[in-house]
Every structure is written in structure tokens, then in C-alpha cells.
Amino acid sequence: MTSWRRTDSRHSKKWPGILTGLSGLFVLAALLWPVDSIGLSVAGQTCRLPDSGFALQWQHSVEKEDWREDYRRSGSKLLLTRSRFKTYGAGTPSDGNLHGGSSGLVDYQVNRLLNELDWVVSGNVQSTLWINQQAWPVHAWFDDYTVLGFRVRRTPFGQILLMDSCHDLFRQGHNPG
């Protein structure tokens, strides 16, 4: 004779509640989990930049040649990966690996870690922010001497989901200021 075990109905009714509670705790923990991301603060607003990076471009005030620097996130810091320019002059990097480019630009692989970067906008040098290979002419949107503050921020994942990407913020009105 086979013996069948009876299931106590009181215990089986608790499992859905326990699973729902555990699922809720898991979602809450995921939303509160701190993650590092690049934040840009300007004119009282903060937006999120892609971890893959961004570039800053301006026209050198003396040589009148374009200069471009590429940045990305490395852990909890910004990493200046490269600096490209046409002619040597004031501010030219003195360290890094020099690469000749087919575009006629001097290309330095810099790899310098920064805690933060404050960049001053100027119409005179045509300050431009590049995000995802798209140019955003911040010199046309902000007054001269407006500061763009770039920092890696530790932020709860849920807040990251709600924060505008800088690309979206600039695209919405081309002028977040």
C-alpha cells in the first residue's frame, strides 16, 4: 500500500505571499543599488552622459585651430583618453603616446585620470560637446563663462533610470539653460 502525504493547506497558501515579498525586496534592492555614471551639471540641471564617453572640442584661442579631447568613465573617475590638435602651442600635452593620424592631426594617447572637470563655455572658441558622435554647440546655448561640470557620480540605479540622458535633454530643446 502506498502512503500519500497530505499537504497542509495553511502552508501552501503562504508561498505566494512569501514569493511576492521576496520579489518586492529584490526589485527595491536593485533600484537602490548604487552605480557610477558620468553626470553633467549645467545651469542648475544635471543629466547623464554615456559611460562610453564624450568629447570636448574648441578652437584654440591663439592658433585658431580645432582641439578635441575624448573622455570616458573609468571606475569612479573621468579618464582623458586622447587629445587631438593640428598645431603645437600653449597647452599642448607634454606626456602621453604620440600617434600620427591620417587626418593630419597630432593625436596624443593621454590616459589621465581626473576626479572632476569644470569646462568654461565660450563663444570665442566655439565650445562644443560631442555625445554619441553628435555635436552639441553649447557655445550657442549658454552665456560665455557658463561652467559645464563633469563628474562621476554614485547614484541609485532607480534614479539613473529616471534621469534624462544629456543627449535627450539637449535634443528636447537644444538649450537646457
Describe this structure in words.
This protein has 177 residues and is an alpha+beta fold. The chain has one domain. The protein contains 5 helices and 11 strands; from the N terminus they run H-H-E-E-E-E-E-E-E-E-E-E-H-E-H-H. It has helices spanning 9-12, 14-32, 138-141, 157-162, 166-173; strands at 34-42, 45-49, 54-59, 66-74, 77-85, 97-100, 106-114, 116-120, 128-131, 134-136, 147-156. Strands 6-7-5-4-3-9-10 form a 7-stranded antiparallel β-sheet, with helices on one face. The chain has a 4-stranded antiparallel β-sheet with strand order 2-1-11-8. Strand 1 and strand 2 form a beta hairpin. The longest helix is centred in the N-terminal third of the chain and has 19 residues, at 14-32. 16% of the residues are buried. It comes from Thiopseudomonas denitrificans. InterPro entries: DUF1850. This is DUF1850 domain-containing protein.
Chart the SSEs and their pairings:
Blueprint: H1 9-12, H2 14-32, E1 34-42, E2 45-49, E3 54-59, E4 66-74, E5 77-85, E6 97-100, E7 106-114, E8 116-120, E9 128-131, E10 134-136, H3 138-141, E11 147-156, H4 157-162, H5 166-173
Antiparallel strand pairs: 1-2, 1-11, 3-4, 3-9, 4-5, 5-7, 6-7, 8-11, 9-10
